[in-house]
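Example (one chain per record):
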Amino acid sequence: MKQQFGVLLFPGVEELDFVGPWEMLKMWERFLDGPTCFTVAQHRQPLACANGLSVNPDYDFADCPPLDYLLVPGGMGTRLEVDNIVLVDFVRTQGARCRKVLSVCTGSFVLHRTGLLAGRRATTHWGSLPRLRALGDVQVVEERYVFDGDLWSSAGVSAGIDMTLPFIAAEAGEAVAMKVQAGAEFFPDGRRYGRFGDDPRAPAYLRP
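Predicted structure:
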């Protein structure tokens, strides 16, 4: 049976948190027999993302099929959604039976609220690293992405793309990940502008 990959949406979700991984995942699905990838939200009506993009979820929580994979993006909306009992219960229930659960940016706080992140290694957006560390039961790693068994997490926004390629390689092999990378033409040049690495708030991977 075809595996099912759900991408969670909610009001105020950061666009690139889910659109970046979505692009990679849909290439995996369409061209390389990857899992069926779709979006899911509490309600099926259009919702507004953090920067104004309106999106139409494919499923709501009630009609979402059992998932093999779940991606939880971040954004300012997570500050409300961590207290949304319906959403947290959906992530907890689906996540408990998934092969892998992934978070991008502050999606890690939603995973923590479900209990799935307790005692695990994880990361988040650099601006929220102190908040994640303050939770006390997460081993915070200041890297672009981190995996701990069946849980993957990435730093903010564009870092979700960096996480998705090695995730695909781990699930489907390097040859498949190579084709996805080439199709997306994702070959960052590594250039940095200014000296943000000197800022004390910068994550460890950016410091000199």
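Caption: The mean pLDDT is 97.
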